[in-house]
Amino acid sequence: MSSEQDYVKYMPHNGFDDESATLSEGPPDGRVHDESRTIGPRTNLLNLTPSQALETVAGFLAECGEPAYRARQVLRHLWTKPAGSFDDMTDIPREVRQRLAGQFSIPRLAVDMDVQSSDGTRKFLFRLADGQAIETVAIPDGKRLTLCISSQAGCALQCAFCATGAMGFARNLEAFEIAGQVRELALLDPPLQPTNIVFMGMGEPLMNWKAVDPTLTILNHPDGFGIGARHITVSTVGVLPGILALSKRPEQFRLAISIHAPTDDLRRTLMPVNVKYPLADVIEAARRFDRRVTFEYVLLGGVNDAVEHAMALGRLARGCGAFVNLIPLHPGGTGNFKPSVPASVRSFTTELRRAGVEVAVRKSRGLDIAAACGQLRVERLRRRPPVGAN
Ligand code: SAH
Questions:
Q1: Atom of ligand 1 at shortest range from CA of 260
Q2: What does the domain layout of the chain look like in residue ranges?
Q3: Do the bridges between strand 293-299 and strand 169-172 make them parallel or antiparallel, or are there none, so unpaired?
Q4: Which of the chain's ends, N or C, has fewer CB atoms near its CB within 10 Å?
């Protein structure tokens, strides 16, 4: 059976299905689906890839009798040197700016909260046009600045320890809302310019491929943010059609898979999605992925952190040459889990190394600002007085 057929049997059929889970490629012109491009009658340029945006703006400006180079000027202000509005594109004549603003939109995300941790981690809560809130975390580490971005408002997957899962699924983000998180930080004063991007904020990126696909282009393209594909990591619970779609991209985007348990029985209790995408199939997808994959494994005290778990995980990781990232449980998630004690972390790591697996223990960052998946939004909701309270 071809790999494609293998994956096709896992195309949406159960409770995780919704429109968002489909991997349709949109209309035949290859653009992001039509409604999402427009706000009212105007085309949202930030939902287009840089090439599509250039073509669209060039067509309009040619009709207006403007010189061809103006389209490139506009393009530069979308991502490379972002402008907050058409009016801020001051290298373009005012009258042209006004015409552009009548035809196109470049919507902003509103910063609702901006909190800084004592370790330098900075977390943003963005408010979207329909009131949804999403989180973005900026994590400095030496010369690197990693942005952890959200791909959905909420999440349908309900992993037992995750705050986002507990809030449920609200909706998919559009490309302009995913790439817009990076754009907004570039618009700050002083701007935050990331060297690395991880899709480890709220949501499951591979259940929103329709928007994540063009977003990857925007992040990587030289007329977008120009971030190297190897510095962009898509993190997934193991959505097989999505892994296949990612593997078909010619760029070297990185794939991280949240494993969290080395057996189906245990994984099912932590990650209900394992019913739909069982461990063996996820591991097989990792093996077939033509680049090195990272396994993420959150260490839960007394649950998945015994030496036997490490041995089983070691066999799985060895089998597909995966790198293992051990993640300390971030307090403030959900469920009654405890982080692993240091001695367990040490013996777990030693056992994996003994199995010939490369492993890193991630540092917990932003502990004082609720920096783990979904936690800031949860805190924000908690702090709000109930409706009707004085
Ligand atoms: N849905 C994707 C990406 C978002 S979550 C995925 O699951 O991979 C990014 C990572 O953070 C996942 O590995 C997730 O399991 C982990 N995570 C969620 N809550 C956490 C917590 N409280 N402590 C540590 N890691 C957590």
A1: 15
A2: 40-105, 110-383
A3: unpaired
A4: C
What's the CA-to-centroid distance between 46 and ligand 1, angstroms? Answer: 27
How many angstroms does the Cα of residue 199 sit away from the middle of ligand 1?
Answer: 10
Q: Which position has the token pair 């932003």? A: 366
Nearest to 278 by CA among 6, 19, 22: 6
Please report, rounded to a whole number, the percentage of residues in the chain having pLDDT higher than 90: 78
Nearest Cα residue to 236 out of 3, 37, 10: 10
pLDDT digits (tens, 9 = 90+) for 258-279: 999 999 999 999 999 999 999 9
Task: Name residues contacting ligand 1 (CB within 6 A).
Answer: 159, 161-162, 200, 204, 235-237, 258, 296, 298, 327, 329-330, 333, 372-373
**What is the dihedral sign for C-alpha 180, 181, 186, 187?**
positive
Q: Write down the mean pLDDT value for the chain.
A: 87
Count CB atoms within 10 A of the CB of residue 295. 25
- Alpha-carbon distance 350 to 329, whole Å? 19
* CA dist., res. 21 & res. 275, Å (int): 16
Nearest-atom index, ligand 1, CA of 334: 22
Residue 259 burial (CB count, 10 A)? 28
How close is the Cα of 373 to the center of ligand 1, in Å?
6
- Give tens-digit pLDDT for 152-171: 999 999 999 998 988 899 99
Q: How far is CA 171 from the centre of its chain?
A: 14
Q: pLDDT tens-digit profile of 3-51?
A: 333 322 223 332 233 333 333 333 333 344 344 444 457 999 999 999 9
Range 110-383 has CATH code 3.40.190.10: no
Catalytic site positions? 135, 373
Atom of ligand 1 nearest to the CA of 374: 19
Tell me what percent of the chain is helix, strand and coil, each rounded to the nearest 5: 40, 20, 40
Q: What whole-number distance in Å separates Cα of residue 163 and Cα of residue 59?
A: 45
